Amino acid sequence: MEHHTEHPSKKHTKRKSTDTANSFLSLFLNCAIAAGLALLLACLMIPLGGALCFATEDPTSPIPAVGLAIRFLSALVGGVLAVRRNRGKVLLSGGLCGLILCLFTALLGMILPPQSRPFSIGISRLLRFAILPISLLGAVIGAKRQKTVRHKRH
Questions:
Q1: Burial bucket for residue 55 (CB in 10 Å: 0-12, 13-18, 19+)
Q2: Three-state DSSP class for 142?
C-alpha cells in the first residue's frame, strides 16, 4: 500500500495563499463597513445641512457647498474608520474605502436626473474622484491618532 504525502513546502504555499485571500477579504469587508458607516453619517448630516440652508436668506444658494461639505466630511470619517477597523494598512484601507465611496456616488449619479446636479458633468466627476484622496487623508489622520493613543496608554 502506497502512502502519498504532500511536500511540506506545498502545504506552506497553500496556507499562505489562503491566508492572503482571507486577509484581503477581511480588508475589503472592513472597508465596506467603514464606507457604509460613512454613508450613514452623510444621511444623518443631510437634515442638519438642510436646516443650515433654510436658516440663510436665500435657502437654495448654499445647497451645493453644504452638499460637498457633507460628502467630503463623510469620506474623511470613512477613511478614519477604515484604518481603525483594519488596524493600520493606511494606503490600502483609505484607498479602498475611498474607491467604494466613489463607486457609490457614481452609481447614485447615474440614477439621479441631470437636473439634480448643481455642477457641470466634468466638475461633478472631478469632485467625485476627490473623495479618494480625502479618504486617504482620513486614513492617515486615523493612523496617526491611533498611534498617539497607543503611546499614551503605556
A1: exposed
A2: helix
